[in-house]
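Course assignment 3, question 2. Fill in each field.
Student: A.L.
Task: Predict the tertiary structure for the chain below.
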Amino acid sequence: MNPIFRLPTNSPLGMAVPEDWGLIPLRVPAGWNIIYNQLSARRLPDGRVEANDSQDLYWARTAPPPWLTAEEVAERGGLQAREINIDAGWYAGYGFRVVVLDPDWDHERASCTTPDLDEFVTTLEGWMWVITQRGQLPTS
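Answer field:
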């Protein structure tokens, strides 16, 4: 399986991918530190999209709101008081994988594997939103 996709002509993601390699635009809600982002793609001459095929595409971790002291974060508890990581990559033969870690690989809380680029980006953005905006871990 190659990371080459035919996206719908009216797909916002498809329209955002340039001819030369560039980062795929992501809607990252407040509350995340992006540690690593190589989620890139390019438009091929026939209109298809080729995505980076690395297992290490994206890594982000939650950050407490900067206006709260460490004591206030601890008092609030919940996900704001914990370090949640989200990791994403391409795995040949399987497709894209998004994993939520609380806080590390020994504590995998949600996982989604899909061969579809649109579904991958939607899952990644949606899970980041659910974690920081709703204060919940996604269900897989």
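Instructor remarks: The chain is about 20% helix and 30% strand. The mean pLDDT is 92.
Grade: pending
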